[in-house]
Design brief:
Thiol Ester Dehydrase, Chain A; six-stranded antiparallel β-sheet
Length: about 130
């Protein structure tokens, strides 16, 4: 059984908020706070990746049958502009690129306001639960 989004410890730790979820689109928000910033005062890139990945996971995971599971096979992130404390929440929007029987690929964009901050492609193996 899939745990509710807010029950996942990592989601709570980061302060992630699931704003919209359908089989074709997921939107997750991350309010920016000082403890998410790196040495130069911008949001740390690993946190941008975690945000984008979480949106991609929730595009697929809630719809998996109980006898199926998923494992990440890879991701590719492009960091396009800095996430800043004063510019509001970061918003990740994930959409499917391919949903096959055994492999799924998702696109995740991370925006802050109208500015594109990052874009990632996430690939997952869909398999029987063991």
């Amino acid at each position: 059984m899939n745990a509710p989004f807010d029950a996942v410890p990592c989601n709570r730790l980061l302060g992630l908020q699931l704003v919209h979820r359908s089989a074709d689109r997921v939107e997750v928000h991350l309010p920016v706070r000082p403890e998410l910033l790196q040495e130069e005062g911008i949001v740390q890139g690993g946190l941008l990746t975690a945000l984008a990945d979480t949106a991609a996971v929730y595009l697929l995971w809630p719809d998996l049958p109980p006898d199926r599971t998923m494992t990440g096979l890879g991701c590719s992130m492009q960091f396009l502009s800095p996430g800043r404390l004063q510019d509001g929440p970061l918003v990740a929007i994930a959409t499917p690129l391919k949903k096959g029987r055994t492999v799924a690929v998702c696109d995740s964009v991370v925006q802050q306001g109208e500015r594109l901050v990052a874009r990632g492609t996430f690939t997952f193996l869909l398999q029987e639960r063991r």
